[in-house]
Amino acid sequence: MIRSVAAHELPALLELVEAAYRGDAARRGWTHEANLLDGRRTSLAALRASFDDPRQCILVAAEGDTMLGTITAIDKGCGVGGLGMLAVLPDRQTSGLGRRLLAAAESHAAQHFAARTIEMTVIKQRPELIDYYMRRGYRRTGAEEPFPHGDERFGIPLSAELVFVVLARDLPAETSTSPGAG
Question: Which domains does the chain have, with CATH numbers?
Fold first, then answer.
């Protein structure tokens, strides 16, 4: 089931995100950043700030008490939504859960933030992940954003070359009228 995260679940959410993005556990999956970044992917304080921000909604996929995946829908204003921190446990990364989380976040952004377009940033040096999103209708906008080098809240880059590319897609009209993600 995909639903909004509860405040008391933020510590478990932090463990999920770290397991999906960093360290040896993440290397079991295909979407990790362990070869590009060291250190933490996020912090409890950053998750709390996202949770408390009315322009963001953290969605989680769970089976019972076990969190399997997460994504954040963001209201960027003017009909533009954003997506962030898609994370799926490494042993579930080929189950279609990422695709379902992506669809739920897009639907949430359309329904709750009146988004007609959705954007995200992806590290340019992750071509397999960029390709994943392009297969789901995203396109390169041509825009790039600098990686926050020196800000350890985002991890410790193993290369000075890291940069974000901006991907976007228009949301289909039916997304804004489909039932909520729950």
Answer: 2-177 (3.40.630.30)
Rounded Cα distance between 99 and 19, Å, is 19
For residue 153, report the phi and psi dihedrals to the nearest 5 degrees.
-65, -20
Whether the predicted model's global pTM rises above the 0.70 cut: yes
Mean local confidence (pLDDT), 90-95: 86
Averaged over 160-169, what is the pLDDT?
Answer: 95
Mean pLDDT in residue range 164-181: 72
Distance CA 53, CA 178 (A): 24
Angle at 31 between CA 69 and CA 156, to 5 degrees: 100
Confidence of residue 156 (pLDDT cuts 50, 70, 90): confident
User: What's the rounded Cα separation, in Å, for the pair 182 and 171?
Assistant: 19
Following CA atoms 127, 132, 133, 139 in sequence, which dihedral angle do they give, to the nearest 10 degrees? 60
Q: How far apart are CA 86 and CA 60, in angstroms?
A: 10
